[in-house]
Design brief:
Elements: E1 3-5, E2 16-22, H1 29-48, H2 59-86, E3 95-101, E4 105-115, H3 116-131, H4 134-143, H5 152-161, E5 164-172, E6 176-186
Antiparallel strand pairs: 1-5, 2-3, 3-4, 4-6, 5-6
Helix pairs in contact: 1-2, 2-5, 4-5
């Protein structure tokens, strides 16, 4: 049975979305790593087509477009990097990233497969991110450059981009888990 941590949003109510799948074995990790930023930038460019800047000198719309692009690019890149770094599913399991556009939010979800011990470490980190003060965690992680800086990218998603994070862990055969990390950016209606 699947376990959720945080306010995980179902995909069933989504209209406009984009789903990309990557085969872990198709490229060496260093090559795939370089492609992460290309994929993240593609998703960001795709996102801003839904938020036109208008005509002329509409600085508010241009600023909003730039903020959305920066957030989507950072979040997608971070989720892809984590997915590749912790993927243990082998060639039988693809890594997926899904981008959804709703009237009031943008949702970026990344799914990979990992082993039981990594899934347990993720549960611990997720609970920490959901329960602790993000400003305090952010400063603690910035001050540490060793293993205690784990999760800094996810904390940055929360701290700098104002997204909400949630996770779904679904057991698979052979002590593996499908792990979906979901970041939700709420769209501020007064900025429209």
């Amino acid at each position: 049975m699947s376990e959720t941590l945080g306010d995980f949003l179902s995909e069933r109510d989504c209209g406009e979305h984009l789903l990309l799948s990557f085969s872990k074995g198709s490229l060496p990790l260093k090559e795939r790593w370089r492609n992460n930023s290309l994929t993240a930038d593609f998703l960001a460019d795709y996102a801003i087509t839904f938020f036109p800047a208008g005509r002329g000198d509409d600085t508010r719309a241009l600023k909003r477009q730039r903020e959305i692009k920066d957030s989507v690019s950072y979040i997608a890149n971070e989720l892809l990097e984590n997915g590749l770094k912790y993927h243990e599913g082998g060639a039988a399991h693809d890594l997926n990233i899904r981008f959804e556009i709703h009237s009031d939010r943008l949702v970026i979800s990344q799914t990979n497969v990992t082993g039981a011990s990594r899934a347990e470490r993720l549960r611990h980190l997720a609970r920490e991110l959901l329960e602790e003060d993000i400003d305090t965690l952010f400063l603690q992680r910035l001050e540490n450059t060793d293993e205690t800086s784990a999760g800094l990218g996810l904390i940055t998603i929360l701290h700098d981009h104002g997204a909400a994070l949630a996770w779904r862990l679904s057991p698979l055969p052979n002590a593996l888990h499908a792990v979906t990390t979901q970041a939700t950016l709420i769209l501020n209606p007064e900025e429209e």
